[in-house]
Write a structure and sequence with these properties.
Layout: H1 2-10, H2 14-33, H3 35-45, H4 47-55, H5 66-78, H6 102-135, H7 139-163, H8 182-202, H9 212-216
Helix pairs in contact: 1-2, 1-7, 2-3, 3-4, 5-6, 6-7, 6-8, 7-8
GO molecular function: lipid-linked peptidoglycan transporter activity
Keywords: Cell shape, Membrane, Transmembrane, Transmembrane helix
Protein name: FtsW/RodA/SpoVE family cell cycle protein
Amino acid sequence: MFVIMLYVATERTSWIVFGLLMSSVGAVGVASFEPHIQTRVQAWLDPMHEFELSRAGVQDGIVHSEQAMQALWAFGSGGTLGTGWGQGNSDLIGFAANSDFILATFGEEIGLAGVMALLLLYALIVERGVRTALAARDPFGKLLAIGLSGAFALQVFVVAGGVMGLIPLTGMTMPFLAYGGSSVIANWALIGILLRISDTARRPAPAPAANPDAEMTQVVRP
């Protein structure tokens, strides 16, 4: 988000390259030294590996990639139009069906068409946020609107990408779809701020205040 705001403020592409480079280095460093992150990365790269070892009796304990596998199976069983409201097997995903993996439950019951419609709605919210940033007259409003829009888009990408297996899972909630106290409040506050910036941008610009000194120095012609 900060890289996006820096790019908008300076219009320098080097900030994008620098941000991607530092993010990659940080991700590799954390994954190398943190066992919990290593487990998530392994579950992302080969979600069936731990499950096969557990079934073969080679590995005992929790199968960390089980929820990721169940999410992929849920998307697959949903097909194009889904199984119907309340007809999915969300209990297979466990406690995360109403939080991290609510998108998998949604995709199973509504299908690919419903997931695409949901992502389109998210894209429209981001598009309106970018339009608000372009319409804002003050630099602070522009940066705030583009930063909030970028944060919203990043949250959707991280959650959807993690559930669909594009990137490792993070545990974030899907905006306006999953349970969550502070997350729901933060997302509604984000929308409220964007609406306020948009409302201010649509109002007529205030007339410049008269300068009394300029009136006193006017040349009086006979």
